[in-house]
Amino acid sequence: MTTSISDAYRLQPQGASFTLSRGGRFVLSCDAEGRMLTWFEDGTLYKRSLDSRVLARRAAHGRRERWALDDHEAADMFERVRTFVARALDEPLQKTLLERTVAWTPDRLLAERAKFARAYAPVGILPPDQYFSVVLQATLGCSWNKCTFCTFYEGRPFTVKTQGAFEVHLTDVRDFLGEGATLRRSLFLADGNALMVANAKLLPMMNAAKRTFPNRDFYGFVDVFTGQRKTVEQWAELREAGLRRVYLGLETGHDPLLAWVNKPGGRAESVELVTTLKAAGLNVAPIVMLGVGGRTFAEAHVRDTLALLEALPLAPGDLVYLSPFVQHDGGEYARRADADGLEPLSEPESELQFDVLRDAVKRAHPFVRAARYDIREFLY
């Protein structure tokens, strides 16, 4: 039987990971231990989290569809992947990599959930460029946790880990990731607002993290209210310790809307903090939301957010994230919107905000990338 080029298996080792493909219809990527990362099958992309949850995505009728698989569906998909790899063992390919993946049965992959839970509390959210970082939870929860639109840390009191507890966490994360850690070339200090921790506590944590996961830079979130508590010199200390980029949920440049969603800070404070961070030699990634505040706030939100983005002293190496607002049914935002008669924007109206804000970033900061940040596609 003749095998056409389109039917042939192709194995591509990439140091810390590898891909196995067959034509354009099937593409599998795995970490160094053979655990599935992504699986593309007939137009659908499946992404597996470290705790073996699976998110699927495909384009249909000009729109992107997303859905989560339940455990039974995930197990079926894992078995399809395993069968795909097992058949490749008959090909003249590097057997060691393939055998590692075949050893990951559906039950074994699903059992990663319990191992993940021993190393981590739930990871609420990450910026898209940090989806493949080593997340290190110096804190749990968010120090504010009262924004009406956010449910990432719901029901979790904010706590700062002791140095001893953090070092135990480092060991647990290292043991859980195993060789898979080689794929993850940065360290993300979590959870929300971890960078607000006083340097006297944060710097020893960073030093311990560098010993466990060497040759990696640090990244993390801070909000405007708590970020302003640190001086240029204190932020520069963190830069010297390896901090490279700070992610800031600015959300909007319209102060009345910021107050309406119960978030501290404001446009002037946002410019001041970004100026401080840049003076300390750090890169920044401001995050603004698309569609937040609905039609009631739409005009003012775009106008004042444009002014905010233009006023920020951004430079090469910085990012601007534009994040479509996602309303959670039953949450405080939904209750407040209903009480105030706020109408949500349609998807095309939200997309128009994306285009306007992205183009404004291009004009004001030609060397800064503006990118989409869709929280519905987050998986760690």
From TrEMBL:
Residues 126-363 form the Radical SAM core domain. It holds the Pfam family Radical_SAM. Its cofactor is [4Fe-4S] cluster. The keyword Iron-sulfur applies. It comes from the Bacteria. GO terms for molecular function: catalytic activity; iron-sulfur cluster binding; metal ion binding. Keywords: Iron, Iron-sulfur, Metal-binding, S-adenosyl-L-methionine. PROSITE patterns: RADICAL_SAM. The keyword Iron applies. This is Radical SAM family protein.
